[in-house]
Amino acid sequence: MTTDIIQNLEKMLAAGKESALLRFSLGSEYLKASQADAAATHLQRAVELDPAYSAAWKLLGKALLAAERKADALAAYRQGIEVAENRGDKQAAKEMTVFARRIEKELGAT
Q: How many domains does the chain have?
């Protein structure tokens, strides 16, 4: 299911207005539409465009988890924690730490 918001954001992207915020917005909307793979693709691009975008790392982890890619989600959360800590974004780091620990328990990782 593609919403009007997704269609409008995709049009902006097709018009060459690529940015980390646009990719983040697309990822968020695709996730809301239960299209985790598409969400992950856009969120991965968002962190490529702005590696210090801690909110994008957090949502990328969520999208990858929804896509049943637990190991990838864990890697995204770990990178996001590092980014958030470097930026002083304590709340995002704390949230991603909780999510990462849950995945580690599920995967039996240490």
A: 1
